[in-house]
From TrEMBL, chains A, B:
It catalyses: a 5'-end (N(7)-methyl 5'-triphosphoguanosine)-ribonucleoside in mRNA + H2O = N(7)-methyl-GMP + a 5'-end diphospho-ribonucleoside in mRNA + 2 H(+); a 5'-end (N(2),N(2),N(7)-trimethyl 5'-triphosphoguanosine)-ribonucleoside in mRNA + H2O = (N(2),N(2),N(7))-trimethyl-GMP + a 5'-end diphospho-ribonucleoside in mRNA + 2 H(+). It is found in: Nucleus. InterPro entries: DcpS/DCS2, HIT-like_sf, Scavenger_mRNA_decap_enz_N. Pfam families: DcpS, DcpS_C. GO terms for molecular function: 5'-(N(7)-methyl 5'-triphosphoguanosine)-[mRNA] diphosphatase activity; RNA 7-methylguanosine cap binding. This is m7GpppX diphosphatase. The keyword Ubl conjugation does not apply. Decapping scavenger enzyme that catalyzes the cleavage of a residual cap structure following the degradation of mRNAs of the 3'->5' exosome-mediated mRNA decay pathway. Hydrolyzes cap analog structures like 7-methylguanosine nucleoside triphosphate (m7GpppG) and tri-methyl guanosine nucleoside triphosphate (m3(2,2,7)GpppG) with up to 2 nucleotide substrates (small capped oligoribonucleotides) and specifically releases 5'-phosphorylated RNA fragments and 7-methylguanosine monophosphate (m7GMP). It is an enzyme of class 3 (hydrolase). Substrate binds at residues 159, 169, 189, 191, 252-263. GO terms for biological process: deadenylation-dependent decapping of nuclear-transcribed mRNA; mRNA processing. Its main location: nucleus.
């Protein structure tokens, strides 16, 4: 069971990394950091073991340090070294079970970091963790608020049309059904390295224009959805050897861009935005449209948005969310 | 932003822990571990940075070592110490952005562990990670397979009836609506420490008997669901000061026990089994029953089960899942 592309032994990786860098550059960042003072915790995630902090020099120059504990190496030598050198401090012992704080050698316990300096306010704002708020979007809210939001803030989809017309990224296509009404292109997601099956992440983008999100779907679109589901799962099985019952297929709602697309992700991968308040299973959408053809014209859809989000702001202005 | 109950400085915690343990016991576990050899990776989670391994002595005595990287301390002194002592090895530098492997002092980078020894095969099996498989449960599958599974393997609910009758855990109740048809008891979940608001996790258990899961719900139960939703969110606001739009309320499907209960969890907490293949939002259930009163009598529900799971076995025996 591998993850995050961890393959070689840690010791090798460290030597490799150090061999390739200039001493000067390496010291520059470290020197800059050591002369900085801690200012603020911008964000943290105790489940994933990450910490984002703001630091600053006396001159006022600021930097953002993103720290993320690395996964354990699963290399046999590294595990053997860990067992031999672990220092245990007992917290509790009961029958065969004991809890310990363990100190392991630093080289087996690296932290991956990004240091951004000098950092301006826009960069700092990007990494400042924001509280999220739940929105209940009725069908009426969608028509009066969300449609306006999409018109106003929708990102430019030129990149997507270039992909669909194969003017760009044609070499990345895993599978294509060229049918203009029910066809689609299947490609690896940019977040995926393309090799680690634990993190398999591919994206199906439909050829048809004008379907912005699941809100636009009715039972008339079942042939489209069932076509994407069956052909994508077959293509993934054929290319990567991963069974259909090991793949989770879902939409985001709200999506990141408003041209219908479907995420196909390994069941083993705890992907960002795959929880109930962000993702809707393709199987559930198909089921819902079979139960009521106009399901998405009537449904109240529940999702979460960050504090500074424009859509949340528009819901608040309309009096549909508490300020 | 705190998590996992991390409050004091790490340095203090280590001193505290070491001060309270007998040298002998502490050494016993370490001595046992150092004499052991690595046998097998039982499981790993690269997102949460954990590793479960099987180790064994030459005598054949086996042990299970569960390793879990600790979250970063957010104590100001610990962060200052980290900044001062971090050793950076450059991986990549581009404009203001640089990536580094960082070595930080061991005492700021503890691993929490559990060592179980001697471990028998049953204990080992419990920690061996198993692949999951997706099941599509039609209404017919529910009636012919799942109902049989519930009859055969449902856990004894005496503990639950003791809670509902207040014979046990009465002191833990946050709120009760005693109505036998639409009432419920709200209590902290056993996984929650009761103090860290980041991880807030409370459970509503309905008083009415015979509602096993969302499958048993129809539009007739909307008053029950809306009652639990509004009164639980109010009670959480009053007792913990957390706003309703900061709480995610959901069912598990399949649930862990078959007496209807609802999870109320902080939006900030990445709770286990809160993804689309395990959790169903209370808001979505209410919405679905409004769209079709018999929604859960007709729906195909999609969820994932582990390889050795009895329900998966029964679906496979019935020819409803690939072997």
């Amino acid at each position: 069971m591998k993850g995050d592309g961890e393959n070689g032994s840690v010791a090798t990786e460290i030597r490799g990394a150090q061999g390739n860098v200039s001493e000067t550059k390496e010291n520059a960042a470290q020197t800059w950091l050591r002369a900085a003072k801690f200012k603020e915790v911008l964000g943290s995630d105790s489940s994933h073991k990450s910490l984002f902090i703001l630091v600053a020099h006396e001159s006022g120059e600021q930097g953002v340090l993103l720290l993320n504990k690395s996964p354990f190496s699963e290399n046999v030598e590294d595990i053997a070294a860990l067992i031999e050198s672990a220092e245990l401090s007992e917290i509790m012992k009961n029958d065969i079970f004991g809890s310990y704080d363990v100190i392991i050698p630093s080289k087996l316990n690296l932290v991956k970091s990004t240091l951004i300096y000098p950092a301006n306010e826009k960069v700092i704002a990007k990494y400042r963790q924001e509280e999220k708020y739940i929105i209940h979007e009725t069908a009426e809210d969608y028509n009066t608020i969300t449609v306006e939001y999409i018109k106003k803030y929708q990102m430019d989809l030129k990149w997507l049309h270039n992909v669909l017309s194969k003017e760009s990224e044609a070499e990345r296509i895993i599978f294509e059904d060229p049918d203009p009404h029910n066809g689609f292109i299947l490609s690896p997601d940019i977040k995926w390295d393309g090799t680690s099956m634990e993190n398999l992440y591919v994206l199906a983008m439909i050829h048809r224009n004008g379907v912005r999100s699941i809100r636009d779907l009715t039972a008339d679109d079942l042939p489209l959805l069932e076509n994407v589901r069956s052909k994508s799962l077959s293509a993934i099985k054929e290319k990567y050897g991963v069974r259909p019952d090991q793949i989770r297929a879902y939409f985001h709602y709200q999506p990141c861009f408003y041209h219908l697309h479907i995420h196909f992700v390994s069941l083993k991968y705890d992907a960002p935005a795959s929880t109930t308040l962000a993702a809707v299973l393709l199987d559930d959408v198909i089921n819902n449209l079979k139960i009521a053809s106009d399901y998405y014209k009537r449904a109240t859809l529940t999702f979460a948005r960050k504090r500074s989000d424009k859509l949340l702001e528009m819901f608040r202005e309309a009096g549909r969310c508490e300020p």
